[in-house]
Amino acid sequence: MGASNAQTATSTATAAILLSEWIPVIGLIFGGCCSNVFALESLVREVPKCGNLITFGQFAFITLVGLPSHVHLGWVPRLKPRRVPIQRWMVMVTLYFCVSVLNNLALGYNISIPLHIVFRSSGLIANMVCGYFVMNKRYPRMQALSVVMVTIGVVMATLSSVHGTHEHGLMRDSVIGIGLLSLGVVFAALLGLYQEQTYLKYGKHWREGLFYNHMLALPMFLFFYKDIGHQIQALSQSQSVNLGELPLVGALLGENMISVPYLWISLLVNVLSQWACASGVHQMTSMSSSLTLNVVLNLRKLVSL
């Protein structure tokens, strides 16, 4: 009897620990990622091809947040010792940068936010195929069937969206956008599997991964500096709003009249929510398999719709 009670107590304690770890992560993913979608939609509605500026803002902010934890800030700043070889982070950075840029670029090619969300759900089948051929993984038959059914739904939604586009120029843009999203889905699947293997080999250092995946990618934005400059001008030309009229900000500023182009506020919301979303995703990557992460992200995308 005593052994049974001890086993029950142990199981209860284990479940409590798991819940205390998973609930904050789920909150970051669903809260941060869903908020990010709303801010993204308001940006691309006004400036469709602002993807590079959005991606740069996200990467720069997440890097700044991580600086105190990963860099010795002195007269000569230097990186703190790492738990994972930097070569591993470089591979992830390249994949993650490609995924982010491709997904945001696709929005400039007649890809609606709902289609963007639905199409990226095909990451399940990409993850399974890459896991099978690249990592030699094997999946239960029922799990594979479920993923195939989700993929069929994605294909139907994609074809429906494209067939609803009658103008030749818009049709061509849609095809380009879907091509960009397809490439992004494959890179995302490879990234997820590589992250899973890295955390299994070197430990669950997700904060280090979050920082290096964004910091090491910043120099790559030099290739897009002209586009980013034009996008900054486009956002700056949006209608200005008085910050004092905003509910929470107004209480802090009082009667101070500070006007800011409203698209910059949308960009700030997008960047902050992306930080929360990315933190949750990286933490879950260290806690679960790549396929489990994809299932959770697909549920989040369903909520966003």
Descriptive key words:
3% strand; 76% helix; two-stranded antiparallel ribbon; 305 residues; mainly alpha
Task: Describe it.
- There is one protein chain.
- By secondary structure, the protein is mainly alpha-helical.
- Helix content is 76%, strand content 3%.
- The protein has helices at 2-46, 51-70, 86-106, 113-120, 123-133, 141-163, 168-202, 206-215, 225-236, 247-253, 262-287, 290-304, and strands at 71-72, 78-79, 240-242, 259-261.
- A two-stranded antiparallel sheet has the order 1-2.
- The protein starts with a helix and ends with a helix.
Short description:
The protein has 305 residues and is mostly helical. Helices cover 76% and strands 3% of the residues.
Chain-wise SSE layout:
Elements: H1 2-46, H2 51-70, E1 71-72, E2 78-79, H3 86-106, H4 113-120, H5 123-133, H6 141-163, H7 168-202, H8 206-215, H9 225-236, E3 240-242, H10 247-253, E4 259-261, H11 262-287, H12 290-304
Antiparallel strand pairs: 1-2, 3-4
Helix pairs in contact: 1-11, 1-12, 2-3, 2-8, 2-11, 3-7, 3-8, 4-6, 4-12, 5-7, 5-12, 8-11
